[in-house]
Specification:
The chain has 6 helices and no strands. By secondary structure, it is mainly α. Helix 2 packs across helix 4.
Length: 148
Amino acid sequence: MLMLTARMLGRETIWATLFYATAVPALITGTMMPWFWETPSLAHVPWLIGSGFFGGLAMTLITHGFRMGSPRWWRVRLAGLVDNPLFGWLIWGELPALASVAGGLLIAACGAYLAWSQARAGRRRGTPEALRPPRGDCERGAAQPAWC
C-alpha cells in the first residue's frame, strides 16, 4: 500500500491520497464486519476517538513526508523489521511468531536482492544512479514529483 501511495503523490493532492490509502483498507475490513462485529462499550469511545485522531494525524504526516522526501524512504521502513520486534520484546516481553520472523526474512532478502540486481545492472550500463527505482511518471511538461 505504501508503494501505491508513493506513486500517487505526484498526481493527487495529499487529501485524495489519504482518502484512497484509508478507504481501500476500510472497505476490505468492512466486508468482514457482519461476522466479527462487537459493539464497543461507552468506556471505549474516548479511546476510539483518540485512536482515529492520532492515526489520521500519523497518516497525514507520513504522506506529507513521502511528498517531501527522497524515494530512499524504504531504508527507514525496513529498519522496522528489527526495531519493532526488539521494542516488543523489551517493553512487553513478546517474542515474534515464527511466521513473522519468516516474513521479515523474506522481505529483507527481497530488498537485498533488489539492491544487488540494480547495482549490478548499473555497473553494466555505467549509470551512477542505478539504485533509483524506475519511474514512468517523470514526463516533460507534467507535474514533477520530487524524485524526477
